[in-house]
Amino acid sequence: MHGESVAKARRRRSALFAFEPPGTDNFNDSRLTLEWRRLFSELLGTFFLVLVGAGGAVVMAKSHGQISRATAVAAPGLMVMAIILFMGAISGAHLNPAVTLAFAARRDFPWRRVPGYIIIQLIAATLACLFLWAVLGKLGNLGATEPGAGTSDWRAMLIELVLTLGLVSTILGTASRAQNVGTLSAVAVGGYIILAGFWSSPISGASMNPARSFGPDLANWNFTNYWVYIAGPIAGGIIAVVIAFVLRGPGGDVGEQAAARGALDPHVEADSQTTPARGEEAR
Fold this sequence. Notes:
The chain has helices at residues 2-16, 24-27, 31-62, 69-91, 97-105, 114-136, 153-175, 184-204, 210-220, 228-248, 254-261, 266-274.
């Protein structure tokens, strides 16, 4: 009977995360190995996100406007969609300190891993901007996010707060087991980023990500407006956690944990074997 319950739990987990990569039997052999794979996943994912996010402005300057603003703001959303699909099961594909903090506050991600994730995200963002500088030159302000012309810092901060509120709400909502949409969560998150950029990039740059803004600012050594892109996204993420509690109660379910930590996390595997499925709890 115990074997049957374990099999059922694994089938439930597979249904939630059908995009899990192969080779999981060997993947969890060492916690240390798994941890560095997580951090490398965040490094690679954040590098590509900032490469296309900041790269849009650099390439626009290099090509004398041969790509449009719409193209430049759509690229990061499409990249996030791809990253979630191809390695979200490894690290959770946070790619954003505000998302990491929100998952931790929601009890879906251990606080002890937060510093490592945030540091690696900041490093990756910086490497992406240095790469653009080395290959294409120091053009387009290296894609720095700044308040638009005629927009004060505090107005840009409020826009970033609201945008990140929507982004993190989308991430937490599609990660919930009660509401999980499987691989379509990547479409939801990527689509939100594109939509936010379409209407708000001239006002604040539509960063929604302290790491995305950190890389260009460090490379340019200009942090004049950086507080906007820390205060706004982090405050928006915290409010999104409160809203998630109001809508769905406390976090910590298996679906959310697997989305936040990576579906291959051995702690999530253990939880999925011991937590009854919805509908079985009353039996």
